[in-house]
Each structure stands twice: as C-alpha cells, then as structure tokens.
Amino acid sequence: MATYCIMCGKQRVGIPIRDDRILESMRWIKRNVTKNEKGNMLVVCKEDYPAYKKRRDKYTSRQALYIAIGVIFMILGLVVSISVSTVLLSILIIAALYLLSLINYTPALRLKKPADNVSKNHKG
Description:
The chain is mainly α. It has helices at about 20-30, 50-80, 85-100, 115-120; strands spanning about 5, 15, 40-45. It contains 4 helices and 3 strands.
C-alpha cells in the first residue's frame, strides 16, 4: 500500500491521518459510486507538517466559530419566538454552518497520546 502526503500529493513517508466520518464517507463514495478507490494510506510528510498544522488550526477554529454562530442564532431565535418551527430552523442553520465549515476540512493526525506512552513504559 502506497502512502501519499495530503499536502503535496507526493508519495512520501510521514505521520498517518486519523480516519473519521468525513474520510469514511469520501472513501465510501469512491468505492461505491465512482468505483475509483485506490486504497492508499494518507500521511503528512515532515516537510509539509508546518503548513499542515497551520491549515488544521484554521479548520478547527473556523468550525468552532461557525457552530458558535449557529448556537447564537438558535438562542436569539428562541428568545424572539419559542416554537417548533424556530427550533427546526435553528437546527437547520447550525447544520448548514457546520457543513460550511467543511470547506476547509483538514483531517487530524493519528498521534499517540503522551499519557499512553507513560503508562506503557511505567509498570510501577
């Protein structure tokens, strides 16, 4: 299985990408709709890590911002009118803002947690 960097697109060795619902959905579409799944492993190479980190931070901050804006719209809508239609519209706005945040989607890396390494090395 080949490993490709998600930043430069070249076949490289690097830190693997963590699979999540978005990547699973993209792979499902490639496997079942386009019939074009290659089965490559996605990584971030050492050279592109600084650019990846900047892009990932931008994605997570925008995602939090869009969801916060959606929650503010929901609260304001419920202050103005408490009704089923207001709640449904608010949920629709939050979902739309979440989907908007996926424009800058950058997957997380599969890193080991420092606590895991300490507990494995320390048999105390």
